[in-house]
Fold this protein.
Amino acid sequence: MKANATIIETSGLRRMFKGKNKGRGRGPSPDVEAVAGVDLRVEAGEIFGFLGPNGAGKTTTLRILSTLLAPTSGTARVAGFDVARQAVEVRRRIGYVAQAGGSYRESTGREELVIQGRLFGMSKAEAGRRAEEILAALDLTEAGDRTCGTYSGGMRRRLNIGIGMVHRPELLFLDEPTTGLDPQARARMWDEIRKLRKTGTTVFLTTHYLEEADALCDRLAIIDHGRIVAEGSPSDLKRQIAGDVVTVGVNGHGDKVVKLLQAQPFVREACLEDGLVRLYVDRGEEAVPSVLRLLDRNGLAPSTMNLHRPSLDDVFLKKTGRSLRESAA
Amino acid sequence: MRTANDTWLIFERSTILTLRNPIWVFMGLAQPILYLLLFGPLLKNVASMPGFPPGGAFNVFVPGILVMTALFSSVFVGFGLCDELREGVVERMRVTPMSRVAMLLGRSLRDVVFLLCQALVLVVLSIPFGLSINGTGVAIAFALLALVGLVMSPLSYTLALILGSEDALAPTVNAIALPLLLLSGVMLPMSLAPDWLQTLASANPLYHAVAATRALFNAGLYDREVLIGVVVMAALAGLMIAVGARSFSRAAA
């Protein structure tokens, strides 16, 4: 795969849902604009996250991009083809794992992988080999001939991703891949997703977990009420909000330290608060050693030092006026 | 080619899934036997009533039971699909390049094969009870039953795709199947019915399927009813397959 090729590009993507007119005595419900003008660019090879509360339009956007739903207006090109007019070409190149899963509880894992391969045009032997390969990669070889209904939650999710990977798609869509998993299974799933990136597969996932977006995604877009409110790498987004805060305990030399640090180009602002020096900096991880060296050189060894970084929730709060943790609950 | 290939894959998959549930297979085959054993004995006396059409009791009764079996065997198949919808199977397959017609046809052909097996058991077991058969007649009758299946099974899948859950599907299917059945002359020949009921029945496609099947087991192959039944059911089957395939390609659930 070419580096830095754009694999998803949307412009003015909108999707309306008709309101239901049969509300019992509650009058007609209004039409809903689930996706309200989304412009998006995803580069090949990255893990791109779509972060937002439930009902923000994540799944609707995902369904448009994976050809399941036609946009009301706007265009989307996925893997080089238009999702509305060249749906079959798009489908050949993408994998899609719905929130509902995709594997049937009465089929075995192997059967599901094999039929998926054959629906993509593989021969029986080829699909069998590929199924074997995927079962082994996902640590499911022993469970391969058991029906999916007997799998644990984590195993079933891994199988579902395996089903989406059978035809080696350039791009894999994952709708809330870890919702409802226990922490251990979630960590395991993150590892699998990172492995995909190593093979060059672009991963586009939705999540309402801040930690997941932060830990897993190279870049992400925050969506709320059908609109993208912020886009960038997790660290860029957080930096754009407030910068990092470094607090330094200085044993009474407060004023001197503030004066010294204010003169440094990497410090946005420095002030004294409750005997602690608070520094607002762009990159906390680089500021900490610089501050240490500087104070050391001036004979002002600090007693304590703390780095506080804004979270993605601070970003969400700033952009939408609400906390995602509250919205998601 | 793509459609044929995909249809075969879905047919194979759904057949394996059906056979994995031996209770359903057993129940499906036991049903016609129950009719023979528990309903058949009533026929001896009914057949002597005025207005009962000519032909032995079983030659009038079995064709009706055959159509009823075809109806019941195929009109409830949407229930299985609700399960697959919930688990995201249909959605997953819609994001493959596979043929949309195949999603429907693979499943419906499984349903047809299953109902023809039931029909075969019924016909074979009825011979000792006094059913007389003609090879060509039975072959055409089976083709007609297959068409009944190809109307009802796509209808059931379409409803499942629209309604999405068993809770909504059950009353809907019952509301459709019961009047179809009562107005088909399956239980007793419509010749026993008052005129207004006969008029109403003639608007029921299933009535023509029953009349055609009955003709094939009695009057012969060249009866007008046979032609009407085959044409009506073939046209409806074509329509329902088109509607069903369309529902699969735009399923929202």
Observations:
- The radius of gyration of chain B is 19 Å.
- Residues 2-40+55-249 of chain B form one domain.
- Chain B is about 75% helix and 0% strand.
